[in-house]
Design brief:
heterodimer; A: ABC transporter involved in vitamin B12 uptake, BtuC; two-stranded antiparallel ribbon; B: Rossmann fold; 2 domains; four-stranded antiparallel sheet
Chain lengths: ~350, ~240
């Protein structure tokens, strides 16, 4: 056998077109914001709508992030995800109502403490329900998509009925904590305080998720598991435990999203999670299955689009996100940044 | 009798409705390279996947280092000391070369001395350390796949066609890497279609046909007997040299 010649590896530099193609999804949100500015005309209205759109997008992202990881890592289509949103909302609002003297006090610290406790309670309860949901409902149907759709929809209906049993069938109205009511004025634009908080919380969740996924070994295992679970197991990692952890985390994030959305709407119903799932699925699909970054970009686009179109052409608002999904899928049939290929 | 690191006794494996392994009896001696040979579709890859646990043996017993591992799930088997290099390389293409290696070092941080040895064996991995693995060439991906197995000491390496589809210069690099591993006392069960590589590396050989082991013996006995090659594989090794 001849000896190997000196190996001089090279990697071709990507062309401008290739680099733009990779970076394109990151440019979509700024491009949409710019288009919104041109179309709306009034800088104050544009700023108000942009903050509102970003807040809405962040809340949708919180709900969608867990679902996209569950999709990507576990190949599970969980139509029951919306139930965690509803349960989280009801648990969180119950805590807020119980802490009425904190939420009603004109103290930002007390208000935020009440929200913090509501969020923690919602995430613990939805995380625990998620664990039970995975064991009882999901585990028997791994690998069977049709059965997953049917049984998780069944789980959604059961959980919605359980909410009616525990909290009653009627919608519950409540007021936001005192210091989060109203708006601040900036450059002539009215910016709702709660929406600014939602943008901040969403950004923190995104950065945390990104850091965990990119900088920790458990994040590496999750990212690798999304691509090739079989190989991750052949390296010696218990992917089943990672599955369960991701499902619990995804359910808890849905619960957090439920609390945030409840405070946004100031009314909760058992079916609110189910109603949100259309937007959540649009975000997961256009973002690309398994991609947290894709879901983030997709959620911001959906939020901004909905707000801009509702202002510019109200009758088109409902149609706008379907149109957005159609356009993205015509451009990239696998979504913007797919980690796993659609089967 | 030679000390066996791995033995399969009467292993049957089904994939969906297909009965692929039909009673595999295989002994892999400790130390050296055992070649698993045979024509395409006779069950070589399925044998490796059954050993690592990706396919479950329907019947039969798999023993590794004196322990019955037939019922163990894949991660538990891997932690016993298997280094697995699948036929499709199993590269995590969205992860960098470095991240692929960190993931493969299950027991702790990367060992600098071992990493240096890998860089000397596969220089492109050092060059493209921070590059996404999906951007590597086919040969570089195969280097990464083998390097992942080499990053920690394993009791048994299961390597499936590491030279498949590679240029001769890269094949030579692969063969050198496997020879280095062998020199360090590693035990390797190697599926290989390239007979010059098999002949150069193999100590013992097992030939499969129709889901069974039909011949075992010294690699040199098989390499030097064209009639036997013809009989077992339907083609002389001499005519299949690359």
């Amino acid at each position: 056998m001849t000896a190997a010649p000196d190996h001089q590896p090279t990697m071709h530099t990507a062309t401008l077109g290739q680099r733009l193609d990779t970076a394109a999804p990151y440019l979509l949100v700024p491009a949409l914001v710019l288009l919104g500015f041109i179309a709306i005309g009034s800088p104050a209205s544009w700023l108000t709508l942009t903050v509102s759109g970003l807040a809405m997008g962040m809340m949708i992202f919180i709900m969608a992030s867990g679902l996209t990881l569950v999709f990507g890592l576990m190949d599970v289509i969980n139509f029951g995800h919306g139930a965690f949103v509803s349960v989280g909302a009801f648990v969180g609002v119950s805590v807020l109502l119980a802490l009425g003297h904190w939420t009603g006090a004109p103290s930002l610290m007390l208000n935020l403490a009440a929200i913090f406790l509501a969020v923690i309670a919602a995430m613990i309860v939805t995380g625990a329900i998620g664990w039970a949901f995975e064991r009882v409902i999901i585990r028997p149907v791994y690998g069977f998509h049709l059965k997953q759709i049917l049984i998780t929809m069944g789980g959604l209906i059961v959980m919605e009925q359980m909410i009616s049993v525990v909290w009653g069938p009627d919608e519950i109205f409540f007021a936001r904590p005192e210091m989060l009511k109203g708006a601040i004025t900036f450059a002539g634009a009215a910016l709702e305080r709660y929406r600014l908080l939602a943008v901040g919380v969403g950004a923190v969740i995104f950065i945390t998720l990104r850091l965990v996924l990119k900088r920790t070994k458990i994040g590496l295992i999750v990212r690798a598991g999304v691509q090739n679970g079989e190989m991750v197991q052949a390296l010696g990692y218990e992917l089943r435990l990672v599955f369960i952890g991701v499902f619990i985390a995804g359910s808890a994030l849905a619960g957090l999203g439920g609390v945030m959305w409840a405070m946004y709407q100031e009314v909760i119903t058992a079916g609110m999670g189910e109603a949100m799932m259309t937007l959540v699925f649009i975000v997961v699909i256009i973002g690309g299955l398994g991609s947290v970054e894709g879901a983030f970009i997709g959620a911001l686009m959906v939020g901004l689009m909905q707000n801009y179109i509702a202002f510019l052409e109200p009758k088109m608002a409902l149609f706008s996100n379907i149109a957005l999904m159609t356009a993205i899928l015509m451009w990239r049939p696998q979504g913007m940044m797919p980690v796993v290929k659609a089967k | 009798m030679t000390d066996a690191i791995l033995s399969l006794k009467g292993v049957h494996t089904d994939i969906a409705q297909y009965h692929i392994l039909q009673g595999v009896d295989l002994v892999v001696p400790r130390g050296g390279v055992t070649m698993l040979l045979g024509r395409n579709g006779v069950g070589k890859t399925t044998t490796l996947r059954t050993i690592i646990g990706h396919w479950k043996a329907k019947t039969g017993v798999i023993q590794f280092d004196g322990q019955d591992i037939t019922a163990l799930p894949t991660p538990a088997r891997a932690r016993l000391g298997f280094g697995f290099v699948p036929e499709d390389m199993g590269i995590f293409s969205d992860l960098t070369v470095e991240e692929n290696m960190i993931l493969a070092a299950v027991s702790g941080p990367l060992d600098p001395a071992r990493l240096e040895w890998i860089f000397n064996t596969f220089p492109p991995l050092k060059t493209f350390w921070q590059a996404e693995a999906g951007n590597l060439s086919g040969g570089q991906k195969q280097m990464l796949s083998i390097a992942r197995a080499m990053i920690e000491e394993r009791t048994l390496y299961l390597i499936d066609e590491p030279t498949k589809g590679l240029a001769p210069a890269i094949i030579s690099t692969m063969a050198k890497a496997l020879r280095d591993l062998k020199r360090q006392g590693a035990t390797i069960l190697l599926v290989e279609q390239n007979f010059s590589v098999a002949k150069a590396l193999g100590d013992t050989a097992a030939v499969m046909d129709d889901g069974r082991i039909v011949w075992t013996g010294a690699m040199s006995d098989l390499a030097n007997n064209t009639d036997l090659q013809e009989q077992l594989m339907g083609l002389s090794m001499e005519t299949r040299k690359s």
